[in-house]
Write a structure and sequence with these properties.
The complex is a heterodimer of chains A (157) and B (331).
Chain A lengths: L4 E6 L3 E10 L5 H4 L6 E12 L1 H16 L4 E4 L3 H9 L8 E2 L1 E8 L4 E8 H6 L7 E2 L6 E4 L3 H4 L1 H5 L1
Parallel strand pairs in A: 2-3, 3-4, 4-5
Antiparallel strand pairs in A: 1-2, 6-7, 6-9, 8-9
Chain B lengths: L2 E5 L3 H14 L2 E5 L2 H10 L4 E5 L14 H11 L5 E5 L13 H5 L3 E4 L4 H15 L17 E5 L4 H15 L4 H21 L2 E2 L2 E2 L18 E7 L3 E8 L6 H8 L18 H9 L3 E7 L3 E9 L4 H5 L4 E6 H7 L1
Parallel strand pairs in B: 1-2, 1-3, 3-4, 4-5, 11-13
Antiparallel strand pairs in B: 5-13, 6-9, 7-8, 9-10, 10-12, 11-12
The chains are: A alpha/beta (157), B alpha/beta (331).
Chain lengths: 157, 331
């Protein structure tokens, strides 16, 4: 069973926190990220799922960050977290999402994979998922979501 | 006679309900206006009622079944336990939510209008369960030869291992990886509800404020049972507790929220089942909760067995909270 982990490294005037695994009651960000100065960049492409207790813990921590005027940036949000962005309007608690993982599928190769895309790129493309080729057969893969739903946080936000 | 009234003028609703009725020998009665509905319901008061709850002209008061007038009639005449709103999107996303108290005060069921062969199979089993006045039989939701696997949880700390077991089982069964993770998460919510929210003593909830890390035994007679099954077309997971402490109105209220439009407000002092179940349903998974007060609660989730996540998103979805005693009384 893979537990939730946070790896930390110094960034440019910020702490970079790389999250992995499932987010649930075992996640305690206030312990993991208790002393840093400057901003906080959260990289979360490997967050596999988040349960309701995890959502509440997440929001508690990031509300505290907002109260402390820490600039929070979310990078490479995994599909599990993008779903929360779409379900809960205030999920980022004021943090800025700059990129997300986009899920794709190649039917002939039976290959599902994800591609990092910036919000800026999506907005430039009027929220059309970028054309992506399958890593295996190099033919065009299809976006494995309903794009209006998956990117709806960008519309309502 | 198993009477099923369909109040809709949509060809796709009519075609689908004709199919479901032919296969299952239901007596389908189709009406396209409120006057005929009332006449029909007066002579078939034990009928189940399915209605088109998001008709494009439904907000028009002059429409033969405006949403306002149907809601009024349903609320007055038809017990919510046998009413099914048919919609394209979950009920909480109807344009007049969250202003509509009807959606909260009338905890009817919701069928998503995604009609295909798998939907026919799953909705058939669902309606048969209603007509049999027994939705507890998890096995009855699957073809006869389907193997039902069981895990009995005898301690609160078994939960996370059980969730991982479900994730592994689905991944090994070639269910799409993200879907498997989503279902594992949904299972986690059902287990947390059964282990922490369900236990009551002298009418008071006794575990719901505990951290979900806390260890305690689930004593004999109050073990939590996890069942799961997979077929070529769809899968299901059921969690059973023997408290029967579900509050239908409270769950309906949670499911009808729309945190896409309004901020979710953290409650610092309480845990509750609301956000978890909201996420399950909004995530596209079917949820059926059946309960008898102070006896048993069975929460079941169903989802298609697809390799594409998009196909999952475009598939069947049922949401129902069923008070079994009320169902028996109403049919």
């Amino acid at each position: 069973m893979k537990d939730f982990t946070v790896k930390k490294k110094a960034g440019n005037k910020c702490l970079i926190a790389i999250m992995e695994g499932p987010i649930d009651e075992r996640m305690d960000l206030s312990k993991e990220l208790n002393s840093f100065s400057g901003g906080l960049t959260v990289v979360c492409n490997d967050v596999t799922r988040i349960n309701s207790v995890g959502v509440k813990n997440w929001m508690r921590f990031f509300i505290e960050m907002a109260h402390s005027r820490v600039k929070v940036i979310f990078e490479a949000m995994s599909p599990a977290l993008v779903e929360q962005l779409n379900l809960i309007k205030n999920f980022t608690c004021g943090g800025e999402v700059i990129s997300i993982m986009m899920p794709y599928r190649c039917e002939p190769c039976d290959n599902s994979f994800q591609v990092l895309t910036t919000i800026e790129t999506l907005q430039k493309n009027k929220l059309a998922p970028p054309a992506v080729n399958c890593e295996k057969c190099k033919k065009e893969a299809s976006f494995d979501e309903i794009s209006e739903e998956y990117l709806s946080f960008l519309v309502s936000g | 006679m198993n009477n099923l009234i369909l109040l809709s003028e949509r060809p796709e609703d009519i075609e689908f309900f004709k199919k479901i009725s032919d296969i299952n020998k239901f007596n389908l009665l189709i009406v396209d206006n409120l006057k005929d509905f009332l006449k029909l319901y007066a002579v078939t008061p034990s009928a189940l009622v399915a209605w088109d709850a998001d008709h494009p002209n439904g907000m028009d008061q002059n429409h033969p079944y405006s949403l306002q007038s149907v809601r009024f009639i349903l609320f007055k005449a038809v017990p919510a336990v046998k009413a099914f709103a048919i919609t394209d999107l979950p009920l909480n996303l109807l344009p007049d939510n969250p202003k509509s108290s009807f959606l909260v005060d009338y905890p009817q069921h919701n069928l998503i209008r995604q009609y295909n062969d798998i939907t026919l199979q799953t909705y058939s089993n669902f309606f048969k369960g209603f007509f049999n006045k027994n939705l507890y039989n998890f096995k009855s939701f699957f073809p006869e030869q389907t193997k039902i696997q069981e895990i009995l949880l005898t301690d609160s700390t078994h939960r996370l291992a059980a969730v991982e077991a479900i994730n592994s089982f689905l991944a090994k069964s070639a269910v799409e990886k993200r879907l498997a993770a989503k279902v594992a998460q949904a299972t986690d919510e059902l287990l947390m509800n059964a282990i922490f929210d369900a236990p009551v003593e002298n009418g008071m909830r006794v575990k719901h404020l505990l951290s979900r890390n806390v260890q305690f035994p689930l004593p004999d007679g109050y073990n939590v049972k996890l069942e799961f099954a997979i077929t070529e077309n769809y899968c299901g997971i059921a969690v059973t507790d023997l408290y029967g402490s579900v509050e239908c109105d409270s769950i309906a209220n949670s499911l009808r929220q729309n945190y896409r439009k309004e901020d979710y407000k953290l409650k610092y002092s309480t845990y509750n089942a609301g956000l978890g179940l909201y996420s399950v349903v909004q995530g596209g998974i079917s949820l059926i909760i059946c309960y008898d007060q102070e006896k048993m609660t069975k929460a079941m989730i169903f989802f298609p067995n697809t390799k594409s996540y998009k196909a999952f998103k475009n598939s069947f979805q049922i949401t129902a909270v069923v008070n079994n005693s009320a169902l028996k009384a109403a049919l």
